[in-house]
Every structure is written in structure tokens, then in C-alpha cells.
Amino acid sequence: MKRRVIAAAVLAVALTGIVVHLAPGCTSFAVYSDRTLYGANFDYPPNAIRFSIEEHDTGAVFLGAFRNGATYALTTGLNAQGIFAANQMVFPDQAAVGTRAADELFFWEAFDGGVFECANVSEVLDWIGERQLVQVPEPQLHNLYADTTGNAMVLESSGSGNVITPIDGDFLVMTNFYVKDFVGTPLDEIIGSGASRYRVAHRYISKNFEAFDIDHAFEVLRNVAMTEGSFLTRYSLVADPAALEIYIALERDFEHIWRVSLEDRTISTYRGFDEEHALPLGRAGITGTQLQRYAVASASPEEATSAPEPAAEETEAKVAEGEEGAVRWPILSLAIGGLLALTLAMVLLFP
Q1: Fewer CB within 10 Å of terminal CB in the chain, N or C?
Q2: Phi, psi (5° rounding) for residue 171?
């Protein structure tokens, strides 16, 4: 009997470790207090991240992205019309397609259309029209959109059609569970991936809503930051659509804050730096690695941006552990967990 109790305890601890390792991340929100602010944490395994400003139909568009093979995949965006969008992983998985039909859209395409071509949330819905949103095998996504009129929504798929969950009140939060499944559910009864982060963000915003400012927004992101497991908070972002400015903290370092100006097309030191620097920000962008050099040394702009990135083979190795690892690591962890569970079951059944 004692042997079985010990085996069960070991299994519980091992499975808990696997769940922590697998836990995905990303949190985003839109708050309409005296000041409209948007916020997002991008949580992902170690890889390259990049910030850029591109020119599109809506004017200048700020974009946060991560290295995805030979390209960068977009995760957050703010355009010159003040519309904000966030791409985040969602669980559980739905049926997926490798190639979409003409009357379908992938979620990443809806993200692009929202920030590149639309001025408000209503225009996003018009742009999507009758097209059905479908999922790729990995990663599966849902999107948050918010505009300066006080309109915000979470866009998801039911598998058979698009589901829009509009803002209900003065703020909206999204993590990694299907928001559509918990409309009207008491906060303590919400379950699923990222439910605890959702509750933390929701309660903090509610408590500090009347005076909600940039510091409060960063405190939300600090409180829900991922600090262990394979998914870590890579950057935290607060966007002010009235000023067309974006504030960024890298790698859970909330002491050093950068400010992006869409109007000036620049990224500059804002808080926590010994020296002030401003750099032009365009389509080529700047990586998190380059920006972090300012946090550890008083490098000049030329030194920070001209210093080489990791060698190609090193970058590819990190990408394999990061982007592709986001798919591989869960599979590997589940396989290990399955073998461990089988081994312990044998111990329990055949003492």
C-alpha cells in the first residue's frame, strides 16, 4: 500500500511539472478609462523577436513579431488610426486545414487585414465579411481587436462559423481559453488555459480602473508575466492610441522601458536608462537583442544596431528550440509523461 501511495505521489509531481512546461502564454487587454490603453504580453520559448513600423493603407503600422523559420510572424499591431490587434494561441485545438478555401481566412490573415486595412473594429468585421475563419494545425489562434471609439472584441471560431465576443463594460481581457465559452460566467468559475492569468488581469483592472494609466497597465503585465516553463514573457507592450505611442519592456525587465512613436517613426529610451537614445524605426525593424544592449551597457546607437546577431547556424538552432520547439516540446513532454505514467502504473499493478 505504501509503495502505491509513493508511486502516485511521484506521478502527480511529474505530471505537474509537465503541465508547467507545456503551459502556453500571452495576455492582452483593452481598457477604456479616462485614458484608452491597450496592453499585451507575448509569451514564447527563446527565439528572436523584432519590432518594426510599416506603411500600409491605414498609414504607419507598428508591429511586434517573432522569428518563424526564415520569416517573422506577427503577434501585436497598432496602426495610425488607433486600432490594436493581438494574435494569441488558443486551446483546446479545433479541426485544422493545411490549405484554405476561397471563402475562408486564416486567423493570421484576419490580423493582417485588421491593422493594415481597417480604421476601427466595425471595418474589421466588414473586411472579413462572410468568409469563415479556419485554423492551421499549429499554432491555433484567436484575436483581440480594439479601437479608439470604445469598441473591442475577441474573434474566434466555433469550428462551423465565426464567433464574435464584444466588449461588455469598459475593458476586455484575452488569454488562451475560448472566451466565447464563458460569456456571463462568474470570474471564479472560468477554467481553461490561461484562466488564472485572466482572473489576475481582470481583478487588477477592475480595482484600478478609475485611475488606470501606463504604470497600471505595466503592472497588469508584470502580474501575469510568465516566469517559468518553456513559455516565458518575451516582451510586454502598452499602447496609447491617442498619442500613437507604444511602450515596451523586454524579457520581463520592467525597469527599462522603450517608447515607439508612430508619428516620428522612432524608438527611443523612455525609462531606466543612463543615457537617452533615439533610433529610426522602419520596415527592417530592430530586434530585442539589439535593444537589450542598451540595458547592459552604454552602447551608442551605431554599436547597438551594428553588432552582429548570432551566426546563422546558432540562430537556426535557437529557432528550432523556439518556434518549432513550441510544437515539438509539447509532443516530447507528453510522450515522456505517457511513458512515466505507464511505468508507474506497472509498479502499482504489479508490486
Answers
A1: N
A2: -155, 160
User: Could you read off the pLDDT of 79-131 as tens digits, one per residue?
Assistant: 999 999 999 999 999 999 999 999 999 999 999 999 999 999 999 999 999 99
**Which CATH number is 41's domain given?**
3.60.60.10
Half-sphere exposure (Cβ direction) of 262: Cα atoms closer than 13 Å? 25
In a domain, 346, yes or no: no
The tens digit of pLDDT for each residue in 125-149 reads 999 999 999 999 989 999 999 999 9
At 259-291, the pLDDT tens digits run 999 999 999 999 999 989 999 999 999 999 999
Would you tell me the crossing angle of helices 2-22 and 325-349 to the nearest 10 degrees? 170
Best CA proximity match to 154, nearest among 166, 162, 141, 139: 166
Three-state secondary-structure class, residue 119: coil
CA-closest candidate to residue 307, choices 321, 297, 320, 316: 297
Laid out side by side, the sheet with 245-250 consists of 171-174, 27-32, 36-44, 232-240, 245-250, 253-261, 266-271, 278-280
Note the pLDDT of residue 301.
57
Q: Cα dist. 99→103, 137, 314 in Å?
A: 12, 10, 31
Residue 9: inside a domain, yes or no?
no
Place of cell 505611442: 245
